[in-house]
Specification:
This protein has 261 residues and is α+β, with helices and mostly antiparallel strands. It has a single domain, classed as Phosphatase 2c, domain 1, CATH 3.60.40. The chain contains seven helices and eleven strands. The strands form two sheets. Strands 2, 3, 4, 5, 8 and 9 form a six-stranded mixed beta sheet that branches. Strand 6 and strand 7 form a beta hairpin. It starts with a helix and ends with a strand.
Length: 261
Amino acid sequence: MREMLRQLRAVGDLQLRLLPGSVPRRDGWQFAVHYAVGVWPGGDYYDFIDLPDGRLLLLIADASDQGAPSSALVAMTRVVMHSCPLSSGKDQLPFCPVRDPVLQPPHVLLGRLNAILFDNSLAEQFLTAFCGVLDPIDGNFHYANAGHPAPRLWRAGHRVVEPVRDATGLPLGMERHAAYHHRRTEIGPGDVLLLYTDGLTAALDERGEMFGCARLDAALAETAGEGAEAVKDAVVSRLDAFLGGAELQDDVALVVVSRDR
């Protein structure tokens, strides 16, 4: 039992080490993140990749299963995303012999990652993922979704929270030739984008009730005007109050992106 607990702690520590050491910095934008390891570490992951042209790649993902197999899937994902110029936008010889790299759009990246995970994971494993590329100059946000929960987007002009949908494909690693779709939206002044893993909305309190999207949207709507850090704090505080002492069973990852007015 002691050895099993030691290994679980080691898996949790590994997951934390795979995450970025800091949040991005862009004029006119704010970023905030939160990550909590559940009783059984479950392979949640988020990442930022600074691109040579000033744009920013964002990825949030959640591996199926828990423990070592899910951590291995996340580690593989991170290596692929950072070592190949097709996703990092940088010459990464000798890992990937591509000269003059041009970043591929999110749906192409997910398709490539899907094929790699399909060939290098257990038959029952998969990874949900949402990938987006943000242009901080004009707010253009290109994105694709592989079976991941739809991010929430606060529209300051209409004062409403809407899901970022219409680009959903199969989770990565399930079908080698799965196709993914590309969509675009604009994140305007005052808007807030919130990405999360399902450990947040599926969290259960002591009565077995789920946290759900309604509580998440309420926390976002109430604090959107205060910036990314305030939104993150509000969501975490509301989740803690909801749990009321119950243990978090699954990992929770949260990424908040807000554009200044």
